[in-house]
């Protein structure tokens, strides 16, 4: 049992828990970083293509917004690495884990918006059809389900069971 009276399922000190959580967080960030960096890299090349100048103004605006969102997502998802490096050895790992976790969450939200914007741009340029917003909305719904809905459902369902069985 912890001080708050909630069972955590592990017999570990605050520092041990922070070490474990940091390792888990970094593994998660590695996956997201790779994806956002590849996406951002490809986005940076678009403006140098001859066809870019032929895009409609609205598509150029979507592109610029997408690049800025991608840059912000990249910054947020690389932030935990910098945070760790700058506070390492300062005995603030539990606080660093909380900050890094928040940065990662913000980065994932920005990645969601970046991918949505990129998909919108690509489908607008590729098809010029009226069904594009519906297709993008369907993909966003899928992202929301996979990235937030299912994990939150699992957390609620399984956290309640482990709390009940601990009491």
Overview of the molecule:
- There is one protein chain.
- The protein has 167 residues and is mostly helical.
- 80% of the residues lie in helices and 0% in strands.
- Helix 1 runs antiparallel to helix 2 (57-87), helix 1 runs parallel beside helix 3 (93-127) and helix 3 runs antiparallel to helix 4.
- It is flat.
Task: Describe this protein with a few key phrases.
4 helices, 167 residues, mainly alpha, single chain
Quick take:
This protein has 167 residues and is an all-alpha fold. The protein contains four helices and no strands.
Describe the secondary-structure layout.
Blueprint: H1 14-46, H2 57-87, H3 93-127, H4 132-166
Helix pairs in contact: 1-2, 1-3, 2-3, 3-4
- Beta strands, count: 0
Distance between the termini: 10 Å
Shape, please?
flat
Structural class assignment: mainly alpha
Return the average pLDDT rounded to an integer: 89
Global Rg: 20 Å
Q: Helix and strand succession?
A: HHHH
> In percent, how much strand structure appears in the residues?
under 5%
The low-pLDDT segments are: 163-167
Q: Summarize the biggest pleated sheet.
A: none
Total number of helices: 4
Provide the helix percentage.
Answer: over 70%
